[in-house]
Design goal:
This protein is an alpha/beta fold. It is built from 12 helices and 15 strands. Helix content is about 35%, strand content about 20%.
């Protein structure tokens, strides 16, 4: 039986703006959200950053004050956008709170709150009295926060597999529904800027001082961004959906803690699994959103995997990291929403900042956002340690 999980609501907040409409406009007009400075804090490195404006001004309701941190402020902003919280409330009313699950991804949770607490401790000899590790930094805090904010009482978990975190949650949701644990699942991810991530990637020599240039012959690293996004999957929604999750694939090649498999073996497996689960041939994919981080090894490894799956007949493809930066644990949901926009608006987004394609990659990325017939869109998300995930989203017959 072909997988077809309806997507009945979605939302995204990123450096490109707040909501689906803002993101569609940014993709169409090729407006990037990267800037050479930060408002939130001052890291000790030169780069371009994808920061969500005025995030520090977001107020959580009184009942959720113990969860206050930048990561949950970003999550709250996304939940209150595009009518998403209202859509979840309707699902809770239809199925019962215990039949609505939450599967979300993050790489560092609310670690910024701990960084600030450690600074306070260094200066004053004690931690701030309102510091709450279990509600802010603990890895499961994001799922707990979303459950409290949405009134969902079904199973909940956080996946933290670096950059594939909020792509793998779709597979978890599909398995929960297949085993009849739930009728609906809130999937998504949130990752916010923090010093640990910025300085950690910089220490690895992976941060570019210029706007990221995925697939370019002179690419030299990533820009780091932040984002929060969610989708609602329902097993049997009350209305006919336009878009479904039609396939997913997961693999773990465990080649190296931070370097991808040189031949892209795990990436190939994830893409092939997604195609098999969707019962699609490679030639039926109309757009491929690459993981495309802009590091030399990642882009080369992914290109080899793409050629192994698609052969010589490559679909239109691009990396959208030039729009938002690499949003790490939120990259999966960010680019899932970009695939949704591609399907709904019948477009293929540009691979920004590309000046000269690396000939070794043997790819021809889309350099200008363009109109296209898109019925099936694939998205790749590959994390440290070889944690790979691929998603396929498809238009339903009613939407074509």
């Amino acid at each position: 039986m072909t997988l077809a999980l309806p997507i009945t609501a979605s939302t995204l907040v990123s450096p490109l703006g707040r909501g689906l409409q803002a993101h569609a406009a940014a993709l169409q007009t090729q407006q990037a959200g990267l800037r050479p400075h930060l408002q939130a804090f001052a890291p000790k490195l030169n780069s371009f950053f994808g920061e969500v404006d005025a995030l520090a001004d977001v107020q959580l309701p009184p009942a959720l004050q113990s969860y206050h941190c930048r990561n949950h402020q970003l999550a709250w902003l996304a939940l209150q956008t595009d009518g998403f919280a209202e859509a979840v409330a309707q699902a809770v009313a239809r199925y019962g709170a215990h039949r609505v699950g939450i599967a979300v991804g993050t790489s560092t949770s609310g670690i910024l709150e701990t960084e600030l607490a450690l600074m306070h401790n260094a200066q004053h000899g004690c931690f701030p009295p309102d510091y709450r590790y279990e509600h802010t930094h603990r890895m499961n805090a994001l799922a707990d926060f979303c459950a409290a904010a949405l009134g969902a009482a079904g199973p909940r978990l956080v996946i933290s597999t670096a950059c594939s975190s909020s792509a793998k949650v779709f597979a978890t949701a599909a398995r929960w529904m297949a085993h009849d644990l739930v009728d609906a699942v809130v999937v998504g991810g949130v990752d916010s800027l923090c010093l640990t991530t910025l300085h950690g990637f910089n220490a690895l020599g992976l941060v570019s001082e210029t706007p990221v240039r995925p697939l370019d012959a002179k690419r030299n690293g990533i820009n780091i961004g932040e984002a929060g996004g969610f989708m609602l999957l329902e097993k049997q929604p009350p209305h006919a959906p336009q878009i479904v999750l039609s396939g997913y694939g997961e693999s773990s090649d465990a080649y190296h803690i931070s370097t991808p498999h040189p031949e892209g073996e795990g990436a190939r497996q994830a893409m092939q699994q997604a195609l098999d689960r969707a019962k699609l041939a490679p030639s039926q994919i109309d757009y491929l959103n690459l993981h495309g981080t802009g590091t030399p090894s990642n882009d080369l490894s992914e290109s080899k995997a793409v050629h192994r799956v698609f052969g010589e007949n490559l679909p239109p493809l691009s990396s959208t990291k030039g729009f938002t930066g690499h949003t790490l644990g939120a990259a999966g949901i960010t680019e899932a929403v970009f695939c949704q926009i591609a399907l709904q608006n019948q477009l293929v987004p540009a691979n920004l900042n590309l000046q000269q394609v690396d000939a070794e990659l043997d790819l021809q990325p889309v350099t200008q956002t363009q109109a296209a017939k898109v019925q099936h869109a694939m998205s790749n998300s590959f994390g440290f340690g070889g944690n790979n995930a691929t998603l396929i989203f498809s238009l339903t017959e009613a939407a074509r």
